[in-house]
Amino acid sequence: MTPSLPGSLPGSVPDAAQTSSTDFLDYWKLDCREVRTFRGHSHGIWAVAFSPDGLTLASGGAERLVRMWDIETGRLLRSLRGHTNDVRAVVFTPDGLTLATGSEDRTIRLWNGKTGEPTKILFTRYDHNVCSLSLSPDGLMLARGSHNKDIKIWEVTTGTELMTLLGKDEYDHHWSVCVAFSPDGIHLAHGTDIGKIKIWEVLPSGEEKVLHDGHWRRGVEDSTETRGYYIEDDGGFQKPMDYWIGAMTFTPDAKMLITGSRDRTIKLFEMPQVIEKKILTGHTGWIRSLAVSPDGKVLVSASDDQTIKFWDLATGRNFRTLKDHTGAVRCVTFSPDGKRLASASWDRTIKLWEGGVKTEE
């Protein structure tokens, strides 16, 4: 989450006892109602994230501003200026003190999570469009996926670049477009523009541990020339781009990696060997975001087909589909307590959802 894309795994849960007593499968099966719509973005929205205290939402999109909202009133608190291209990723550190945003302007900006004041800019000379951010569970390391083959990891507090992860295959020039730290902090997963998945051991080695075909399907001609390079003359991608990974997340116990692709499927892989266990089908468009409930029972997916789907992770069944957005849904994320869901869409709105029994005002 969030892929989340950022935001799909809770960084800080206000009341752990209260959350652990909730069966989120029952909770979200019972009901799912829209409680608020946030309007104010002038263009499509790429990303949305809850602050760890569950009181604020941050969002970013094609208008290049980062907006912060009061969840209870729906009021726009502030707009953060600085990015010069689409804001693709928005994440809060677990302590809520820092908000990190990644943009197609090739930079990552760090802001004060409470006041919105800019604190740091992270970028390197040869960087490309940033399209994914993931924080380590302790909030100390920030990884970015981009239109480049390497993955960079920064230390959040100092803004120091800690490491660059590069695959063993020097001829592999595919972009590492999606990144996700595992909840135990041991692994970093990344997905490529041709649908392959790599698992890295972050510390201490920074080593590539597993390379998996993921969503990629081998054709008859499987050479580096046919693996989805951008063709300048044609102004488009070759066919293998059909498997582009749009989203990655882990279950809270770190035992399962979940990926969504342009091939319209969601795949579940057992960690750490990355053994494919299930394929979930039902979406008719590119899957852009995945979020898992705090108890690991419910998966929510968002797609360019304008729908949000709820899945029972144990059975793989789709038990609810929301069709309230009028544009591609680019991000979904659970609140830290798992009782609310925020969705961001190309229709320029953010919607807030609640499940369970409706409480009378």
Describe the 3D structure:
The chain has helices at residues 16-20, 24-30, and strands at 32-39, 45-50, 56-61, 66-70, 76-80, 87-92, 98-103, 108-112, 118-122, 130-135, 141-146, 151-155, 161-165, 176-181, 187-192, 197-201, 207-212, 230-231, 236-237, 245-250, 256-261, 265-270, 275-281, 287-292, 298-303, 308-312, 317-322, 329-334, 340-345, 349-355. It has 2 helices and 30 strands. It is 3% helix and 47% strand. The chain starts with 15 loop residues before the first helix and ends in a 6-residue tail after the last strand. With 361 residues, it is mainly β. 50% of the residues are buried.
Strand-helix topology:
Layout: H1 16-20, H2 24-30, E1 32-39, E2 45-50, E3 56-61, E4 66-70, E5 76-80, E6 87-92, E7 98-103, E8 108-112, E9 118-122, E10 130-135, E11 141-146, E12 151-155, E13 161-165, E14 176-181, E15 187-192, E16 197-201, E17 207-212, E18 230-231, E19 236-237, E20 245-250, E21 256-261, E22 265-270, E23 275-281, E24 287-292, E25 298-303, E26 308-312, E27 317-322, E28 329-334, E29 340-345, E30 349-355
Antiparallel strand pairs: 1-30, 2-3, 3-4, 4-5, 6-7, 7-8, 8-9, 10-11, 11-12, 12-13, 14-15, 15-16, 16-17, 18-19, 20-21, 21-22, 22-23, 24-25, 25-26, 26-27, 28-29, 29-30
Summarize, please:
This protein is mostly beta strands and 361 residues long. The chain has helices at 16-20, 24-30; strands spanning 32-39, 45-50, 56-61, 66-70, 76-80, 87-92, 98-103, 108-112, 118-122, 130-135, 141-146, 151-155, 161-165, 176-181, 187-192, 197-201, 207-212, 230-231, 236-237, 245-250, 256-261, 265-270, 275-281, 287-292, 298-303, 308-312, 317-322, 329-334, 340-345, 349-355. The longest helix is centred in the first third of the chain and has 7 residues, at 24-30.
